[in-house]
From TrEMBL:
The keyword Hydrolase applies. It comes from Sphingobacterium bambusae. One of its GO terms (molecular function) is helicase activity. This is ATP-dependent DNA helicase RecQ. Residues 26-194 form the Helicase ATP-binding domain. Its EC number is 5.6.2.4. CDD domains: DEXHc_RecQ. The keyword Metal-binding applies. Belongs to the helicase family. RecQ subfamily. It holds the Pfam family Helicase_C.
Amino acid sequence: MENKSLALLKQYWGYEAFRPLQSEIIACVLQGRDTLALLPTGGGKSICFQVPALQLAGICIVISPLIALMKDQVQNLRKKGIDAVAIFSGMSPREVDIALDNCIYGRIKFLYLSPERLYSDLVKERIRYMKVSLFAIDEAHCISQWGYDFRPPYLQLSALRQLHPTVPFLALTATATPAVVQDIQDKLTFVGGEVFQMSFRRENLGYMALAEDDKMGRMLRMIHKLGGSGVIYVRNRRETQEVAQYLINHGVSADFYHAGLDAQTRSLKQDGWMDNKVRIIVATNAFGMGIDKPDVRFVLHLDIPDSLEAYYQEAGRAGRDGKKAFPVLMYQQADRDKLWENFEASYPPISFIQQVYHHLGNYFQIAYGAGRGAFFDFDIVDFCKRYLLDILPTMSALKFLERDGWLSVSEAVFIPSRFKFEIDYQELYKFQVQSAKYDPLIKLVLRTYGGVFEYYVPVNEYDFAKKLKTSYSNVVEMFQGLQKMQLASYLSKTDAPQLEFLQARVDYKNLFIDAAFIQERRAIKETQLKAIYAYLDTTDCRSKALQLYFGEQDNTYCGVCDLCLMRLHKKDLEDSLRQEIKTLLLVESKTIKQLVDELSIGNDESKVKVVRELLDEESILLKNGLYSWNTGF
């Protein structure tokens, strides 16, 4: 089996050897055992389920909350000649139906699902009829209420175990505390499972947490000193543009990135940075998932992250080539205060959550008793402006409504236009003969795509316009015309979050909200915030502090974080002071003032401190107000 796994790794990915723990995880999965793998960011988690799935008969179902990442993995698998498909919020019921049929009757090897899809009885029933070889749960920490990124739809994963009781689970995550590790296994009902965990220490990373009044000046000095490419994380979209412009004004190649940009712009900005056309990307936490750029020399945080888990993941995007790199967190007291204020705003009263639900029903014009299964593009900024709501508590309200099964909100993601013929080839040919207007477009579709009679294919109207030497609007008009004549289905592109109503609308007074759960989440989040503050305030070692938080005992200092470097500098200073004091006092005895004045290094405080230590050790003697070296020591 190991030889077969290595052969597949070489054949499809071009690697000569597995990364640490990958082969052990794959072997465990091939034995049919439930497995939990904790691998660092960039540790190659996808290989751990893709390689064994290619050896097992049947389909591998992958659950991931990151739609953009799912789409990238499906695209990459298809490029390798491996059949894969993804189902996520925003797809029409017919698209979902066709994709699921292909998983049952076709040659699909990987089915990627967003967790909210498991709310659908249709999806669960179709999975029952699939020959499933493996369930792979990415970002598995999302299933645990003790985790930093709890996602209520992940609680639906137990339904998979009921559908296929003997199929093993492979749960994957980069960050999990001991409580989360246990909770993942409990929630997924592991049977005799194995846990594989790499050390949370990254030997090449020099973590720094700096209290800094002049963040921009310090940032600029560090960029010039460290060299190489980097990521700068900030809290909001406005800051991405301001910081990027500041860098450009000071001669540094930079660009900004956030979720509010359209998909094409985000892709261009990301590619520019990946290809080293842009040195620094200034971004919100929307940037980075699935990106594996090896030569990142620094990751700077100009705001305090919400949790150590989030910080560890974002900081871990530095130094993936194994060379020295620096994750640096800069903060002020105002940042600490703001973090706590945001925490308070994230747990609104029940009445506010009910109010948000009521406004949503009116916003989308949902009648009472109706709306189940309806989904919409959702612009939260417009929604909050219309009803005069603050965005942060509104976002939290949506999460609690999602947790209690009232609705589902997906991330913002670009979904291209999709097209499918609804008549057979003979009928289509008759139509072509009769319609000179549509004939060139139909011929181009048929030449470009296979399977367009069986399932939806993504279409790029701009490419079609260029090839047909016509306008974009004319191409859209023709696609819409084919749909109006019921010859085809055409679903236009979208680039917005998707909101789906999972239950029929009820009066907000009858809306059940689990208040006890909200209080529990508040307590967990408070613990996580206090852990962030403890990390900032530690005087020991940054790497040790991170490892301890994740339940890993390690008493060795990393030697490269800001605290270790300060400690080493302090030791070097003290050693030098000791030697200089010895040299001076071996020549003649001196008063404390003479001694302090003649020492050439250190400040008065450090000089006096070393003198006291030498006195305590009896290396020097004090007699009649004069200090002398103890030659008999």
